[in-house]
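Backbone geometry:
***
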Amino acid sequence: MTWTEAQSYCRANYRDLASVRNMAENQKIQDLVPAGGKAWIGLSRDSWKFWSAGQPDNYGYNKACVVARFNSFGRWGDVPCGRKYPFICYSPLPKQELKLFKLKVKKSSSADLDDPAVLENMLLTIKQKLKGLDENIQVNWKKQPDGKVFYKEKKTKEEEKTKDEL
């Protein structure tokens, strides 16, 4: 695609053409493009970036778009916008959501719910049940101020009445 087509595609389907702000991001783009290849990129407002020697030169006054050249150590060059190159889009990382779930456990055995091995085993069981829903799910215990994960729930007045009636 041309630079303009690539930009339109990225803006419609992602966020924009990838803009490079630092050496790490330039390296990430370089890792995505086969050796010796070129790819359209967007620019940020910073002017110091990764230009190849003598670039930008706007030779012939028709070179207004930027291509990352990966045969010259990931340096940039200005080229006519109508040329066709692969391109790299970016989209921001999805926001992570923190969800808190309360787990009620009926203690029917003599298992010590404060034992790290028991807690780890329970956590593994929960992770197994959630497996396949989303690869980015992380499950951890939230400890109470006293350092414990579980606490004995206080009985409601209705539960006390029911117990007294029996």
In short: The chain has a mean pLDDT of 78.
